[in-house]
C-alpha cells in the first residue's frame, strides 16, 4: 500500500459530467493528516506510518498521549491510525498528508463503522423469507424453527437469528474517486460510503484494482 488517508463524511450530492450524465457522489473531508510517528523495523519490528486527524483539546487527552504528541511536535489529535506504507521510510514526523495524494479515477477501499439500526429480526437482518401473509397462518415474520434434537442439544453458533444490526466495521471495495479538490481537501467518491455523517472514513488504495 502506497496511498491512504483519514477523512470525515460530509454527506452525499450529485454531479454532472461533460456529457450531462448524473453521478451520485459521497463528499469526504480528507485531512490534512499529520504524521505523528514513523515506525521502523529496527525500533518497532515493523515499518508503518502513524497519522493523526482532527484537532482535539488538550484537556481531553491523558499524560502519555500528551507526551506522544509533544514529542512529535503536533497538536493533540482525535483520531490516530497506522498505515503500512511500502515507502514508510520516506515520511517524516510532522509531515502533512493531504487529499492530493489521490487523483480522479483512482480505485479505493473505504472502511468505516456502519450506521447502527438497533435490534432487528431475521427478515430485516438476514433477508429471510417471511411466512404466508394470510390471517390464519399466524406465522408471518418469524425466523423459523431453531431447536435441536437431544443430540447435540444446542443451537449452533452463527445461525441467522434476530440481534443487533449495523454498528460494525465495514469495508466497501473498489470505489472510484470522481473528483479531488486539493485546495479544500475534499474527495468525491462515486456511490455510497458506509457510516453516518461526520463519521471517520479510512480511504486506502484498492487491493483488487
UniProtKB/TrEMBL annotation:
A Pfam family it matches:
Ribosomal_L3
- The UniProt entry's coiled-coil ranges are none
Annotated segments matching region Disordered = 121-152
Q: How does it assemble?
A: Part of the 50S ribosomal subunit. Forms a cluster with proteins L14 and L19.
Q: Name one GO biological process term.
A: translation
What this protein is reported to do is described as: One of the primary rRNA binding proteins, it binds directly near the 3'-end of the 23S rRNA, where it nucleates assembly of the 50S subunit.
- Supply the InterPro entries for this chain: Ribosomal_uL3, Ribosomal_uL3_bac/org-type, Ribosomal_uL3_CS, Transl_B-barrel_sf
Annotated protein name in UniProt? Large ribosomal subunit protein uL3
Protein family: Belongs to the universal ribosomal protein uL3 family.
The gene name reads rplC
PROSITE patterns named in the record: RIBOSOMAL_L3
What species is given as this protein's source? Answer: Anaerostipes hadrus
Provide one Gene Ontology cellular component. cytosolic large ribosomal subunit
Keywords, A to Z, come to:
Ribonucleoprotein, Ribosomal protein, RNA-binding, rRNA-binding
Single GO MF annotation = structural constituent of ribosome
